[in-house]
Task: inverse folding
């Protein structure tokens, strides 16, 4: 296995304001852009050539990763002028692929943190003779997902939209967002128009009698599409619950990057990350949170399960719990922001001005 496509073109709307200035795959998780973890895991599984399917803020990727040689990879970039959906994005990069018609091509979504055994998925694909193989995972409540039932051999039998009644929940298996395609199958996806691989390509292949194989791997899986999930994923990487060879330091309760300054009596726990050049003041307590580069958390502040953007400032004694603070925002002293409240980039909140929470 030497080749992969990474779908990194989404706008990351649910992650705003963190994605106003930064595409979702480039938002730092455990000290490096999330995409770094995906690329490093692909390389560890034997992948050598990766094509990045970009769209939103596409100009950010290549200056950071270059040709990929620092990761032991050869990277190429293809940008969509207009969004093409997951299937359309795959078809749009086909000209950059080097694989022969019957060779496997790995495909990853750029917002999934997973412990998937990549080699095992490729082996399943090759030994089963499938046209497409899908990573499936099991979830306790599948109502928010499309279901993918399989037969006793693991062959996919249907793709079912989000179930609405208990009778419709025929399996707890869902599409986990990683695939292996036979190279020739990619060329059958219509070119030049939006295509959903989940809603159009896969059901169409199944209806045409193609062999779609499922492999269940539930070691670790998390969709990082929301701020709460993103913060949790970053913490899990630091704590060692989610695997990655790209974490820039030892696993543990905290990860403090070079150039950060943390007061001696400040307490960092739960997989907290403090970015380069950030400052954490005296008596501050930060749990399970991400504080990005250049941010300041002043004395006595309490930050829990929150994301603090680059160059943002959190005032003394302010409480954040499940909050998102955009790049460059300033939250004055003695505020309290809880339960999903978001402060936009460069916004200013005066001292003691906010004592409410949002469930939005």
Result:
């Amino acid at each position: 296995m030497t080749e992969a496509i990474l779908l990194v073109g989404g706008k990351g709307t649910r992650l705003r304001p963190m994605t106003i200035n930064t595409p979702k795959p480039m938002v730092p998780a455990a000290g490096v852009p999330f995409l770094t973890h995906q690329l490093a895991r692909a390389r560890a599984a034997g992948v050598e050539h990766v094509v990045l399917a970009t769209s939103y803020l596409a100009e950010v990727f290549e200056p950071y990763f270059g040709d990929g040689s620092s990761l032991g990879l050869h990277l190429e970039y293809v940008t969509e002028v207009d969004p093409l959906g997951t299937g359309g994005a795959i078809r749009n990069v086909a000209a950059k692929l080097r694989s022969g018609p019957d060779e496997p091509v790995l495909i990853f979504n750029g917002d999934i943190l997973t412990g998937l055994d990549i080699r095992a998925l490729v082996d399943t694909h090759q030994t089963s003779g499938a046209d497409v193989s899908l990573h499936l995972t099991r979830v306790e409540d599948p109502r928010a997902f499309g279901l993918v039932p399989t037969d006793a051999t693991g062959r996919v039998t249907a793709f079912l939209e989000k179930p609405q009644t208990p009778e419709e929940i025929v399996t707890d298996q869902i599409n986990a967002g990683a695939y292996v395609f036979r190279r020739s199958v990619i060329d059958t996806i219509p070119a030049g128009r939006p295509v959903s691989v989940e809603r159009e390509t896969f059901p169409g292949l199944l209806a045409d009698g193609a062999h779609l194989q499922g492999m269940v791997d539930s070691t670790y899986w998390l969709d990082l599409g929301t701020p709460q999930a993103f913060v949790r994923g970053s913490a899990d990487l630091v704590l060692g619950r989610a695997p990655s060879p790209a974490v820039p330091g030892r696993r543990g309760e905290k990860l403090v990057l070079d150039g950060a300054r943390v007061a001696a009596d400040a307490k960092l726990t739960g997989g907290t990350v403090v970015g380069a050049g950030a400052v954490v003041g005296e008596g501050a307590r930060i749990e399970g949170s991400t504080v990005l580069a250049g941010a300041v958390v002043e004395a006595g502040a309490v930050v829990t399960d929150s994301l603090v953007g680059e160059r943002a400032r959190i005032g003394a004694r302010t409480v954040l719990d499940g909050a998102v603070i955009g790049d460059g925002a300033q939250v004055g002293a003695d505020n309290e922001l809880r339960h999903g409240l978001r402060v936009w980039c460069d916004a200013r909140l005066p001292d003691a001005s906010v004592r409410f929470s949002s469930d939005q």
Q: What stands out?
A: The chain has a mean pLDDT of 92. Residues 3-223 form a domain with the Spore Coat Polysaccharide Biosynthesis Protein SpsA; Chain A fold (CATH 3.90.550.10).
